Automatic annotation (TrEMBL):
This is Beta-mannosidase B. It is an enzyme of class 3 (hydrolase). The keyword Hydrolase applies. Residues 754-806 form the Beta-mannosidase Ig-fold domain.
Amino acid sequence: MEYKDLTKNWQLKQRVPEVDLTADFATTESWLPANVPGVVHLDLLAAGQIPEPFYALNEQQLQWIGERDWLYRSTFEITAEELAEAELALCFDGLDTYATVWLNGVQILTSDNMFVPQRVSVKSLLRVGSNDLHIVFESALLRGQQLEAQYGKLPLWNGDSSRLYVRKAQYHYGWDWGPVFMTAGLWRAVRLEAYNARLANVHCPYEVAEDLASALLPVRIQVEELAADSAQEVHVALYAPSGELVVERTLALQGEQVVETQLEISQPELWWPHTHGKQPLYRLVTTLHGTQGEEDRHELRLGLRRLRLVQQALQDEPGSSFYFEINNTPIFCGGSNWIPADSFTPRISRDRYRQWLQLAVDGNQNMLRVWGGGIYEDPAFYELCDELGLMVWQDFMFACGLYPAHTEFQQSIRAEAEAAVCRLRHHPSIVIWCANNEDYAIAESKGVSDPQITEHFEQTAFPARALYEQLLPAVCAELDATRPYWPGSPYGGVRSSDPTIGDVHVWSVWHGGLPYQDYPRLAGRFVSEFGMQAFPVLETIQEFAPPEELYPQSRTLDYHNKADGGPGLMAPYLVNNVRVPADLEGQIYATQLVQSEALSAAIRGWRRRWQGPGCEYTAGALVWQLNDCYPVMSWALVDYQLRIKPAYYTIARELAPLAVGLSRQSPDSVAIWAVNGDTAEVQIELELRTVNLGGEVLSEHRRTVTLAGNRSRELDVIQQPQNDQEVLQARLWRDGVVVARATLWSEPYKYLTLPDPQLSVERLDDQHIRVSARRPAKGVWLEAGATVKWSDNMLDIVPGDPQIIVASGLGDQAIQARWLDK
């Protein structure tokens, strides 16, 4: 097969409605260079025709772009040899969104779904020499509003309600963490394929045996043959992660369009989440041979692993478990939700994806949830998750609305789901297909969710159940029966908020106003969303806010908080917990400290409930959210510019292989527990120290404890009256090294008067520092510029417990430290 890249030599212009379309395409005026993959906004920005979209309030000035139609045009050359091939097909991997395409003046396709790749046979329309491609992208906003006027307005949270009718990334309409930028363009690649025969599809739904000692790899190959006898045989070869050939087969076609074989291997190298093992990847190489030699080649990278979603009765609590089991090992899933990493997705490079995903790995996270209001991510995202050992909870692209289910809409969804499942099903990182985000919750909020109704959903006030309970599970069962399917997130029980069945979203903290200290008691079987907002770091704010706006509650800062009433929701969490600074740097630190304390309290409390076989009371905690799509005040752990917020580090400590926890059970007692995330039993030393705010050690005890593998263990309940003047510290020692720490301070912190801790930051070499203090210091935040990568940060420093920190890239840069009440 020959591939011709058609991403070059594109131009775009705004459609002039008063001018005939043919004349509009033919004009020589107003055309701008267009990047493919790309979107209109980026090309207008590159041409200097619009200001930086993310700066200040510029978003408001750019809404006209989404209300216009846009023209794209390109020319490409075809040789006589290429035209002699039996078939030539134009392949569009992504058209955003309402697109009509002409080749040499002939309309060849219309598309209304940005998630459905388009493939069109064009041999009869091509000519030797120059060929013309013309595309009109109509305003998705206006088209959606027309559909809404036709079918009726439907309930939703976030964005223009017409989005529910449009198969476009829903966050483009604006969300409570992102701006409104209604993009258009060729957002993914376009190419011309020339061939006599091709491998139309290769599927390998492998199965690892229950004893993990062998694996069956059934291979189903679909061949498209255009020229008579052009395809004669298919060769299938499986290569081990080392590159060594494991097994091969040669299959004769004899006119068949589908051929199948089955490979079997013993003692397979198993793929694991990075927290539990390695990520060996096999290569399945399929080659199509014809009379003239090799016709086509296809390669899949396979991570062999045994996967189950376990829902079974629990020992001491009602309902059922909800945990993922990889290779017969129950996995506690600690991680984050993932949104698109840019409002303009074509500029997310593979390197950018790698930086983001490496941050998740380095932060001890083993699962990311690809949220349903974004996109089915670029192949690079899933390839890197495979390589790095990150499990992926994959939503279909529905979020926060009661979607329609009329016939044409369902047809579009079927094409979308089939394309997504076929493209992604070979990735070992993906462990579940989930239909939507919060659609059952909004149906319940409107009183239109009735579990007693089991058919004819299209005739109800919640028509999308036809998608979530019929269409999507049928597609998954047909095309990928190797993974569990889940109807929504949250979902389970009579209501989606049932904490005893399925997954839950815990938003009674933040949206509901409950104190974050309540997180541990708000547990569910699997918490797939929860979060607390914080400002990004000052450098990021300075990049989007004019100098005169660099103060708390400025117009620009409020505008860059997209949550409805966001600044007002953030305020009580500051007022109730810390002394609220008046300056911007102080407020940045205060919001980040509160976010850090809140999220660590949640994960610490929920991981405590991972208590072994039959006691998997909480099996996952996914923070909302890892990343941002633009610079904003949000729930993200890392801001748009890849600058880390303190909560990232506190969560990493709570998700470490060994962790220790302290919790006040009553005004006079404290519970102590520890978590062993490894599968093997370990012996460690538990140390408890009480230090007063003056730095005096009041008590100190050590004892040896045994921690069984892959669970938490309650260690003790001690009598320790609450005292504003004392800090309790727990440390876990292993082989003479401190492997985990926890501190318990009197709360709220605003009532504490903390003396100067006399903090010391000592340079040991150009990338190692020692942090110590003569009095307890809460929330020590180290900064030395954006290029420095810290091994740990946002530290509680207790006298007699110096901490060694790796500061990669530090060199001779100055280190600044801030802590609570500084």
